[in-house]
Every structure is written in structure tokens, then in C-alpha cells.
Design brief:
The chain has 11 helices and no strands. By secondary structure, the protein is mainly alpha-helical. α2 crosses α3 and α4 runs antiparallel to α5. The model has no long low-confidence stretch (mean pLDDT about 75).
Length: about 350
Amino acid sequence: MSKLPKWAIVGLAFPLVCLNSWLLYRLGGLLQPITSIVITASLVAFLLDYPIGLLEKQGAKRRVAIAAVLLTTTTVTTVLVIFLGPLVWQQLNDFAERLPRWIELAKTQLLLLEDRAMFQNLPVDLDQLTVEAANQLSSALQTGTSQVINVTLSTLDKTLNLLITAVLAILLVFNGEALWNGLLSWFSEPWQNHIRSALRPSFRGYFSGQATLALILATAQSIAFVLLNVPFGLLFGLGIGLASIIPFGGTVAVLGVSTLLTFQSMGLGLKVLAVAAVLGQINDNLIAPRLIGGITGLNPAVVVMALLIGAKFAGFLGLLLAVPTASFVKKIADIARTAPQPASE
């Protein structure tokens, strides 16, 4: 009997893949917060494995490298929480209190535009558009800020979940290879190698590179904003850096911050935009190619669609996982498409 053509195999497999994916999604929702803990711990383990691998390449034994990385990570995290945590928290609360006044000031300045001659004959009601846009912006910013504060408080309250996540991440660092080999044993030998070669750059390389870039950008932006006496400079610098973990997130954050500051002071807003643009270009063109290069292999339009789908199904965690998951799927699909067909019997 002759084998089915490749298009028929894909057509039959597609609904099965969609059904299984939907079942896994529903199962993950039922198991919350276990699913989030496992995914977060896996991401942390991926990030920690990058410096561990670098130390191993320098000749250090794996256990020594793990101990050094864990000790350094714990020390740095503790120092940041003790010294920067209260400052960021204070600025976040002050920003939430001052935001309504900033929005009102922006609304007033926009409404004044209608008095200018060049806007008199426009076939649109600037008053209505400005009020609606300002109200929506105010609602979105206030909701976003309050959600950040609530999530932070919720995270602090759920100390047990944080502890479990940290312990699981450490266990995955020590024993993740054995667990990974056990999962891959369900696949045939060629596909084990394919999955390894596709998953490592798609996830570990991507997250390691993005986290390093975000850390560099957050540090540079925070220092620059503090030196420029930007209101909430530390908060804005760290926020832009963290947003840059998500593709296009840093750009959106820079535009949002600079626009908000422009309504308070035109010079300050333009200065922040210029500094952020210069630091972003240095980060993207000089540092990023050395760290992540073109590991995703995705078209920018596909990246945007992946982000939208990830946000739709899994919120912020989906935004983090969207690009590496799409990159992994693309690599596997390319391998499957180019794999030789079995000979007909």
C-alpha cells in the first residue's frame, strides 16, 4: 500500500494537534497556579543555565559552576531588593497618585489646540476626541498601575508560591537534564536530536539574550534618567528595561513615557525620547547581535501575531513565551517539511 502524500498527512494531523493543544491549555488552566509555577521555574532555570554553561566552558565543574551562579544570583537579588526595592515601590505609589493630575494637564493642553486657527476648520470635534482619548488613556494607565501594585502585593503575600518556584528552579538546574532526557525518550532518535537543536536556541538562547539586554537597558536608562532629573527616573528606567524583554515592548514604553512627560515639559519629554532612542539603538545594533543574533528566525509580522495570540491565551506569561514558542514551532515545521518521505512499498 502506498504512503499518503505529505499534504494529506498535514491535513489529518492539523486537527489532532489543535485538539491536543486545546486540551493541554484547558488542563493547564485547571491546574493553576501549578502551571504558572512550573513555567516560571523552568524560565528561571533556563536563565541560570546560561552563566553556568559559560563557567563550564572555562573549565569549572558543573556543581561548582551551579554553586557560584546560585550564590551570585542570591546575593545580587538580595542587594537589589534591600536597596532598590523601597525606592521603586515609593516611586510607583507616588506615580499612581500624581498620574490623574498629569492626565488632566495633558487634556487641558490638547483642548487648547482647538483655539488655534489651523485647527478651526477641521471636520472633527477635537473637544470630544480629546476628552475621550484622555479618559481612555487615564483609565488604562491607572488600571495598569493599580494592577502592577496589586500583583506585587499579591506576589508578596504568596510567599509559599515564590518559595516553591525558587526551590523547583534550583532542582531543575541540578536535575533538569535527566528530566529532559526522560521526556525526549518518547520520541524516535532522529526527532530527539531535532527537538534538542530547535529548543535550545529558541528558548534558552532567547531568554538568556533578552534578559541580558533588558538588564543592560534598564541599568543604562535608570542612570541616564536619574542624571537628567527625570521625575520617577528610576521607575521609568526599570519599566522600559523590563518591557524590552517582550519584542517591541521597550519601544512602546519609551513612546508612552516620553509622551506623558512631554505634556509636563516639552524639553524634558524630547530629552527623554532622545536619550532612550540613543541607548535603545546602541543596545539593539551593537549588543543585541552579539547576544541573540537572529536566533528566532521569524518575520516581524509573525512576531506580532505570536504576541497577540500569546497575550490572548496566557496574558503576560503568554507574551513572554510567544516568540520562543513560535520560533520553536517554525524550526520543527521546517524540519518536518524538508524531511525525506518514506519510500512507497
